[in-house]
Design brief:
Elements: H1 3-15, H2 20-39, H3 42-45, H4 48-52, E1 57-66, E2 72-83, E3 89-95, H5 101-117, E4 124-129, H6 138-152, E5 161-164, H7 171-185, H8 206-223, E6 233-237, H9 241-252, E7 256-261, E8 265-268, H10 275-287, H11 293-299, E9 302-305, E10 318-321, H12 330-338, E11 343-345, H13 354-362, E12 366-368, H14 370-373, H15 375-390, H16 396-420, H17 427-445
Parallel strand pairs: 3-4, 3-5, 6-7, 6-10, 10-11, 11-12
Antiparallel strand pairs: 1-2, 2-4, 7-8, 8-9
Helix pairs in contact: 1-2, 2-5, 2-17, 5-17, 6-7, 8-9, 8-15, 8-16, 9-10, 12-13, 15-16, 16-17
Bound molecules: NADPH dihydro-nicotinamide-adenine-dinucleotide phosphate and (2Z)-2-iminopentanedioic acid.
C-alpha cells in the first residue's frame, strides 16, 4: 500500500482501535483511491484523506422510553454527521441491537461517497440506536421514536441534516419520528426527514427506490456484456424493504427469484416467487411482522435455518445480497462463482467481506458495490427533498424515470472512472474514485477549515 495512505489508515486505527467495521470500510475505500492520490498530489497537500476519515461531528445520547408494562427502558442514540461538503448531511437511521458508533461510522463513511455519486447535493451522515423494534408493540416503538426525537430534533433540519430509514426503520418509524418533530418544533418542515408517507410530504417510489435501483444498476452492468436480466435466475437475501422491491423489479423485468431470507433462515422456491407470492410476503413482513419461515408453510417449499447454510449455496445467475454487512463470506463467494454466478449487486451496505470481493473480481464477475448499487434509495430521498422545496410532487412515472436515469448515470460514471484509472470494469474502484473526487474537490474549494 502507498505509504501516505497507510499512514492515514494507521492514524485512524490508533485513535479508535475497536472500530473494526469502520476500519474495514475505510481500507476498502483508501486502497482503491491510490491511483487518484498519485495522479493528483493536491489531495495530499490539502490533507483530504486525514480530514475525510474524521467525522465532522458525532452526537451520542440517552434515549429513555416506556415499555408495555410501564417500565422505563434506556437505549443509546447516535447521529454521525460525517461530511457536509456537498450538502446537508443525509443518510438513514438504523434501529438494531448491533448498532454501535463503529457500525454507524462505517455506514456514514460509505454514505459520503454514495451520496456524491447520486449527482444530487447531499453530504453524508448516519444515525440510529441499539433499540430492537422486533417483537415490540406499536405503542413501544412510538414511545421510543418520540424520545429519540426529543434529542435529535435540535441537530436536524432541511439545511442541516436529513435522516431517513435503514434497517429497522421504515414507514411506521418515520411517521412517529415526524409526528414528534412537528410537535416539538411547531414546524411543518417536510424536508427534515425523507421516507415520509405519500400523503404528507413523502415521495412516490421512495419505498421501492433502493431495490428498483439495484436491479437497474445490475441490468446496466449486464448490458456491457450483451446480456439482460430477463430469464435469469436470481437469489436475494433479506426480506425487508430493499429485498422486497428488488424482487418486485426482477419479476417486472422477467427474471426468476428463487430465494429470500431473514436473520433466522431462508426459503427456496424453485418455481420462482411470483407477484401473488410477493404480495403475501409484503403483508407478512410489513403488516403482520412475521418470519420468512411462514412462506415455506404457506407455499410448501424448503426452509433452512441460517445455522445450516445460506442461500448463496444455490445455483443462480445473479446474487443480490440485500440484508446486512458481511453476509457473504469468502467461502460463499467461491460457491457462487463455482455455481456460475454472472453478476452480484449489493443492495445492502458492504454485504461482501473483502476476500469475497477479491474472489468475484479475480473471476471477472460483474460486481456492483453497495455505494453504487444501492444508491437509488438515497437518490429518491434527494428527489423527495426537491419536491418538498417546491411544495409539489411528481407522479410515480416521473420519479421512477428520474431514478432510472440516476442509476444509469452512476453506472456510466463508475465504469468510465474505472477505465480512466486503469481498472476497466472494476466498479468498486470506479465508484470509490468517482465518489471521492467530487467531495475532495469541494473540500479544497471550501478552504482548509472544512
Ligand atoms: P429492513 O429492516 O427492512 O430489512 C432488513 C432485512 O435484513 C431483514 O430481512 C432482516 O432479517 C435482515 N437482517 C438484518 N440484520 C441481519 C443480520 N444481522 N443477519 C441476517 N439478516 C439480517 O432493512 P432494509 O431492507 O432497509 O436494509 C437492508 C440493507 O440495505 C441494509 O444493509 C441497509 O443499510 C441497506 N440499505 C437500505 C436502504 C433503504 O433505503 N432502506 C438504502 C440503501 C441501503 P430480520 O427481520 O430477521 O432481522
Ligand atoms: O444506506 C442508505 O443509503 C439508506 N439507508 C438511505 C438513506 C436516505 O437518506 O435515504
Amino acid at each position: 500500500m502507498d505509504k501516505y495512505i497507510e499512514s492515514v489508515y494507521n492514524r485512524v486505527v490508533e485513535k479508535d482501535p475497536h472500530q473494526k467495521i469502520f476500519h474495514q470500510a475505510l481500507i476498502e475505500v483508501l486502497e482503491s483511491l491510490e491511483p487518484a492520490i498519485k495522479k493528483y498530489p493536491q489531495y495530499k497537500e490539502y490533507a483530504i484523506l486525514e480530514r475525510i476519515t474524521e467525522p465532522e461531528r458525532v452526537i451520542k445520547f440517552r434515549v429513555p422510553w416506556v415499555d408495555k408494562d410501564g417500565k422505563i427502558q434506556v437505549n443509546r442514540g447516535f447521529r454521525i454527521q460525517f461530511n457536509s461538503a456537498l450538502g446537508p448531511y443525509k443518510g438513514g437511521l438504523r434501529f438494531h441491537p448491533t448498532v454501535t458508533e463503529d457500525i454507524l461510522k462505517f455506514l456514514g463513511f460509505e454514505q459520503i461517497f454514495k451520496n456524491s455519486l447520486t449527482t444530487l447535493p447531499m453530504g453524508g451522515g448516519k444515525g440510529g440506536s441499539d433499540f430492537d423494534p422486533k417483537g415490540k408493540t406499536d405503542a413501544e416503538v412510538e414511545s421510543f421514536c418520540e424520545s429519540l426525537m426529543f434529542e435529535l430534533y435540535r441537530h436536524i433540519g432541511q439545511f442541516t441534516d436529513v435522516p431517513a430509514g435503514d434497517i429497522g426503520v421504515g414507514g411506521r418509524e418515520i411517521g412517529y419520528l415526524y409526528g414528534a418533530y412537528r410537535k416539538i418544533s411547531n414546524y411543518h418542515g417536510t424536508g427534515v426527514l425523507t421516507g415520509k408517507g405519500a400523503g404528507w410530504g413523502g415521495s412516490l417510489i421512495r419505498p421501492e427506490a433502493t431495490g428498483y435501483g439495484c436491479v437497474y444498476f445490475v441490468n446496466e452492468m449486464l448490458k456491457t456484456r450483451n446480456e439482460d436480466i430477463k430469464g435469469k435466475v436470481v437469489v436475494v437475501s433479506g426480506s425487508g424493504n430493499v429485498a422486497q422491491y428488488a424482487v418486485e423489479k426482477c419479476i417486472d423485468l422477467g427474471a426468476k427469484v428463487i430465494a429470500m431470507s431473514d436473520s433466522t433462515g431462508w426459503i427456496h422456491d424453485p418455481a420462482g416467487i411470483d407477484r401473488e407470492k410477493l404480495a403475501w410476503i409484503l403483508e407478512l413482513k410489513n403488516e403482520r411482522r412475521g418470519r420468512i419461515r411462514e412462506y415455506a408453510d404457506q407455499f410448501k417449499v424448503d426452509y433452512t435455518v441460517t445455522a445450516k447454510g445460506t442461500p448463496w449455496s444455490l445455483k443462480c445467475d445473479i446474487a443480490l445480497p440485500c440484508a446486512t454487512q458481511n453476509e457473504v463470506d469468502a467461502k460463499e463467494a467461491k460457491m457462487l462463482v463455482d455455481n456460475g454466478v454472472m453478476a452480484v449487486g449489493e443492495g445492502a451496505n458492504m454485504p461482501t467481506v473483502p476476500e469475497g470481493i477479491e474472489i468475484f473480481l479475480e473471476n471477472n464477475i460483474l460486481f456492483a458495490p453497495g455505494k453504487a448499487a444501492n444508491a437509488g434509495g438515497v437518490s429518491v430521498s434527494g428527489l423527495e427533498m426537491a419536491q418538498n422545496s417546491q411544495r409539489y410532487f411528481w407522479t410515480r412515472e416521473e420519479v421512477d424515470a428520474k431514478l432510472h436515469q440516476i442509476m444509469q448515470a452512476i453506472h456510466a460514471n463508475a465504469y468510465k472512472t474505472s477505465e480512466l484509472f486503469g481498472k476497466k470494469g472494476n466498479y468498486m474502484v470506479g465508484a470509490n474514485i468517482a465518489g471521492f473526487l467530487k467531495v475532495a474537490d469541494a473540500m479544497i474549494a471550501q478552504g482548509h477549515r472544512v
